[in-house]
């Protein structure tokens, strides 16, 4: 049984209240909701797949569905494992033209696309963000509570900013800061259960560098319960970093014979795209 780090429970009430406020961010009414003028792309309507199914697709992609019960109802966490050598990550951003997840996926092939980081009511990122080497948001969250998804010199990794903060003048190909860590150094990292439930998006990495895309589309999980269920899986996560969730959560999986999407409820200004390499 993988462990939950309870040493941090003694940090104090103020820290827990801070985590409680920020771990379960929800969208408010300032964000655009789906309406009759905003529709998913037409080509998705013909997809025979309504959800991901457990399957080892090839030597680079495996889909695992972790099922469990909560409040006497069945639910699931969908996990996509990607071989580190066969997928590249790029980040796309447009605060001036945010889109639904399916709209971001126009022209996508042999790739998996998910929503990215937190943003404000003007669709600007609220954490450190670099796209194609350009810093689009220099503001940084508290290093003690956040992590960084980075691509530097074609190497993708999740970085603990507590032990390795961003250096002045440091450059990246792509980088996106988010919070909180759900799992860090193989241990559960959420201190208490706030009871606030939402749809969830997260990314993970193991000690070998393999990547994990993690989705909860039904909105029934608190971050604490999310952590507990991930620790029950057979994966040896080193890191799992939470991304924006709630109405922002979305996935487009277009790979091999699968064409699956879970659309976001709101338009989002940045997305992560994991694309099969041509090597």
Q: What would your notes on this structure say?
A:
The chain is mainly beta and 279 residues long. The chain has one domain. Helix content is 9%, strand content 38%. It has helices spanning 13-23, 101-104, 223-231, and strands at 55-56, 61-70, 73-82, 87-93, 111-115, 129-131, 134-137, 147-152, 155-160, 174-178, 181-184, 187-188, 198-206, 211-221, 237-242, 251-255, 258-262, 270-276.
Total helical segments? 3
Oligomer: single chain
The neighbouring-strand order within the major sheet is 1-2-3-14-13-15-11-12
Low-confidence spans: 6-49
For the CA atoms, what is the radius of gyration? 18 Å
The total of beta strands comes to 18
Total individual domains: 1
Shape: globular
Order of helices and strands: HEEEEHEEEEEEEEEEHEEEE
> Whole-number average pLDDT?
85
Report the β-strand fraction as a percent range: 35-45%
Note the main sheet: 8 strands, antiparallel
Distance between the termini: 38 Å
Structural class: mainly beta
Overall helicity: under 10%
Short description:
The protein has 279 residues and is mainly beta. It contains 3 helices and 18 strands.
Descriptors:
mainly beta, 3 helices, 279 residues, 9% helix, globular, eight-stranded antiparallel beta sheet
Question: How would the blueprint of this fold be written?
Answer:
Layout (H helix, E strand, L loop, with lengths): L12 H11 L31 E2 L4 E10 L2 E10 L4 E7 L7 H4 L6 E5 L13 E3 L2 E4 L9 E6 L2 E6 L13 E5 L2 E4 L2 E2 L9 E9 L4 E11 L1 H9 L5 E6 L8 E5 L2 E5 L7 E7 L3
């Amino acid at each position: 049984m993988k462990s939950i780090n309870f040493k941090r429970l003694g940090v104090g009430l103020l820290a827990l209240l801070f985590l409680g406020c920020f771990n379960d961010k929800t969208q408010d009414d300032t964000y655009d909701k789906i309406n009759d003028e905003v529709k998913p792309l037409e080509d998705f309507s013909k997809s025979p797949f309504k959800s991901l199914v457990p399957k080892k697709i090839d030597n680079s992609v495996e889909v695992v569905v972790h099922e469990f019960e909560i409040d006497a109802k069945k639910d699931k966490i969908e996990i996509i494992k990607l071989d580190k050598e066969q997928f590249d990550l790029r980040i796309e951003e447009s605060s001036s033209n945010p889109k639904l997840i399916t709209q971001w996926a126009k022209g996508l092939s042999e790739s998996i696309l998910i929503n990215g980081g937190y943003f404000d009511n003007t669709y600007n990122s609220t954490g450190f963000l670099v796209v194609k080497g350009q810093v689009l948001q220099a503001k940084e969250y508290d290093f003690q509570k956040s992590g960084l998804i980075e691509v530097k010199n074609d190497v993708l990794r999740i970085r603990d900013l507590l032990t390795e903060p961003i250096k002045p003048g440091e450059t990246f190909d792509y980088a996106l800061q988010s919070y909180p860590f759900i799992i860090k150094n193989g241990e559960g990292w959420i201190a208490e259960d706030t009871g606030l439930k939402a749809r969830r998006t997260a990314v993970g990495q193991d000690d070998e560098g393999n990547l994990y895309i993690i989705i909860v589309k039904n909105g029934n999980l608190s971050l604490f319960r999310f952590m507990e269920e991930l620790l029950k899986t057979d994966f040896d996560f080193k890191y799992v970093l939470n991304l924006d969730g709630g109405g922002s959560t979305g996935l487009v999986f277009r790979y091999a014979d699968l064409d699956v999407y879970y659309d976001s409820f709101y338009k989002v200004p940045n997305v992560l795209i994991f694309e099969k390499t041509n090597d």
